[in-house]
Design brief:
Pfam families: HTH_1 (PF00126), LysR_substrate (PF03466). The protein is an alpha/beta fold. It has three domains: 77 residues, Arc Repressor Mutant, subunit A (Orthogonal Bundle), CATH 1.10.10.10; 102 residues, D-Maltodextrin-Binding Protein, domain 2, CATH 3.40.190; 102 residues, D-Maltodextrin-Binding Protein, domain 2 (3-Layer(aba) Sandwich), CATH 3.40.190.290. Helices cover 45% and strands 20% of the residues. The protein contains eleven helices and twelve strands. It has a five-stranded mixed β-sheet, with helices on both faces. Strands 9-8-10-7-11 form a five-stranded mixed β-sheet. A two-stranded antiparallel sheet has the order 1-2. Helix 2 crosses helix 5 and helix 6 crosses helix 11.
Length: 312
């Protein structure tokens, strides 16, 4: 954007206009959005027209389902959400500083990074800064990148490659995420150093929804073994449900990140089977927004990640 255009935006842009865009995106109606903003519909219409005039582009299109943001609108709404989230974080941090507490840190993470990376660093952060409020969100990389875009998390431990625009993020690789085949403790010990997927064909599988990487990897491994995906599996996105089901039945088998499997095996809840994976493990790392400024707590978290290196 030309400097003159930036000067116009800086002098005329109002947060109320950006909040209106977010409300329009959520409600798809000028009437509903203006009500949510406690504005008259005419005032909301005027505010939208002023914003479109400043940007020299329409932001919405009318459809049967209501007002739908066009590419310009989606771009501005994305940044509006980031600004709103940053302002909300600013207000919270100012209030916490005034109250004598230590601010907040929100980290998004994939499941496999929790035991060996996230949990140890969170414990160190808590010991150093007992007044720091820390939020950990475990989800898929794709969902967490949306949260990162919206400012709901400060950083993500996951994969930027799942985005259709990975170049808009800073990505620093950390380590691989190997997977393990697991059963309950009541499952008979195999008694050999290595078994294949064919030997598990008669077992019922606990699998994962297709949007999770573990589902695709299991399908690939079975395909390499010349086997189809399990018929009539039990499907869940929850590792807790997976572990509970495996404990209840010696006939069930599943797949988990190796770091997670080791935690449950160490506590006598699961047994890791000696199944060698042929597929290469996926790599994950630290993902942050380009152009965004990390909070002091987030910067320290990232620095500790660098110092920790590969998880044990």
């Amino acid at each position: 954007m030309m400097k003159s255009s930036l000067d116009i935006l800086m002098s005329r842009l109002r947060m109320k206009q950006l909040q209106l865009l977010i409300a329009l995106d959520e409600h798809k109606s000028l009437h509903k959005a203006s009500s949510a903003m406690a504005m008259t519909q005419s005032a909301a219409s005027k505010a939208l027209a002023e914003l479109e005039s400043m940007l020299e582009a329409p932001l919405f299109e009318r459809a049967k389902s209501g007002l739908i943001p066009n590419p310009f609108g989606r771009c501005v709404i994305r940044y509006a959400r980031v600004l709103a989230a940053d302002l909300n974080a600013l207000c919270q941090e100012v209030a916490q500083i005034r109250a004598g507490t230590g601010g907040r840190l929100s980290v998004g993470t994939i499941m496999g990074a929790v035991p060996g990376i996230v949990a140890p660093i969170v414990n160190k952060m808590h010991a150093k800064h007992p007044d720091l409020a820390i939020e950990i969100i475990e989800d898929t990389s794709a969902n967490m990148l949306v949260m990162l875009d919206d400012g709901r998390v400060d950083l993500v431990i996951g994969r930027a490659s799942v985005s259709d625009q990975p170049s808009k993020y800073h990505y620093q690789p950390l380590t691989d995420e190997p997977l393990s085949i697991v059963v309950g403790r009541s499952h008979a010990e195999p008694g050999v150093n290595e078994i294949g997927f064919a030997e598990l064909a008669n077992h019922r599988w606990v699998t994962y929804p297709s949007y999770l990487p573990m589902s695709a990897l299991l399908e690939r491994e079975l395909d390499l073994a010349g086997l189809p995906m399990p018929a009539n599996p039990i499907s869940t996105a929850s590792p807790l449900v997976t572990v509970t089901l495996l404990q209840e039945s010696p006939e069930l088998v599943s797949i988990l990140p190796a770091s997670v499997a080791r935690v449950f095996e160490r506590h006598g809840m699961l047994r890791v089977l000696p199944v060698r994976m042929k597929s290469k493990s996926q790599t994950y790392g630290v993902v942050t927004r380009k152009g965004g400024e990390l909070s002091p707590a987030a910067r320290q978290f990232v620095q500790m990640l660098r110092e920790t290196g590969r998880p044990q």
